[in-house]
Amino acid sequence: MSALLHVDRLDLFYGDAQALDGVSLEIAAGEIVAIVGANGAGKSSLIRTIHGIEKPAHGSIRFDGVDIAGWPSFRVCEAGIGHVAEGRQVFPNLSVLENLEMGATPRRARALEKQTLDRVFALFPRLSERRRQAAGTLSGGEQQMLAIGRCLMGQPRLIMFDEPSLGLAPTIVQEVFRIVRRLNEEGLTILLVEQNVMASLKIAHRGYVLENGRIELSGTGGELLSDDRVRQAYLGL
User: Fold this and answer.
1) Of residues 89, 105, 87, 4, the one with CA closest to residue 50
2) Could you tell me which residues come within 8 angstroms of residue 148 by beta carbon, excluding any fewer than 6 positions away?
3) How confident is the model at residue 19 (pLDDT cuts 50, 70, 90)?
4) CB 8 within 8 A of CB 63
5) SS3 211
6) Contacts of 119 (CB under 8 A, 6+ apart)
7) Chain-centre distance of CA 129, in angstroms?
8) How far apart are CA 193 and CA 125, in angstroms?
9) Under CATH, to which class is 1-80+160-237 assigned?
């Protein structure tokens, strides 16, 4: 199966500090691929580089055969890559509906805005109930739903989730992972960056372990969950 996203030998520096060191990975269309690792391993740096927030020093990022390394974020969005950022980052003073409308800015998304909005409200009924409410007054779980819904409004082909369970109650975390799996079942390709190693590898088709900016292990979700190195380092088993 050919890769929808192919990252090859990616290097990223913050000043003299190297955050990513020769990172290579690939995601086929229709997969959930998890990137797991400790805090500070480089997971968010990888997401930010793919999305054009950071510019790599070396390496390529090919999406659907086109090298997008170094593209500005708006062009990456237009190409079909969505990003649910760490910490939700909703616009707190705008309403739920206004936040969602902000997500439909890519050209290809505008013609389908009404249909996509109906889909988001069907997926997240609480957002429909609170559509006139200021986003900053929502609970953390509701804001995460809003962040996911806003990303969906852009009609992405691939969604990158950056620590979607961070700061959420356990019951809400379960709901977030259920939503990620449902979106994948509906045809979206998912790149899932998570500190919750057990939960993410359970739903992932494949995974990569990132340590100190390098890919140290890869395999299916099941293979990584049964690997003694992963169990000892990340699961306490």
Assistant:
1) 4
2) 84, 124, 164, 176, 179
3) very high
4) no
5) strand
6) 152
7) 26
8) 26
9) alpha beta
The widest CA-to-CA distance across the chain, in whole angstroms, is 50
**pLDDT category of residue 111 using cuts at 50, 70 and 90:** confident
Distance in angstroms (rounded) separating the CA atoms of residues 217 and 139: 36
Q: Average the pLDDT over 44-54 and give the result.
A: 95
Question: Start-end ranges of CATH 3.40.50.300 in the chain?
Answer: 1-80+160-237
Task: Give the tens place of pLDDT for each residue, 74-105.
Answer: 999 999 999 998 877 898 999 999 999 999 88
Confidence band (pLDDT; 50, 70, 90) for 1? low
109-116 long-range CB contacts below 8 Å, 24 or more apart? 109/153, 109/154, 109/155, 112/155, 113/153, 116/152, 116/153, 116/155
- H helix or E strand, kind and range, residue 152: helix 140-152
Task: Give the Cα separation of 73 and 167 in Å (integer).
Answer: 26
At 123, the amino acid letter reads L
Residue 237 has pLDDT above 60, yes or no: no
Q: Which of 109-113, 208-212, 216-220 has the lowest mean pLDDT?
A: 109-113
Rounded CA-CA distance 131/97 in Å is 5
This prediction has a pTM of 0.91
- What's residue 172's pLDDT? 86
Helix, strand, or coil (residue 153): coil
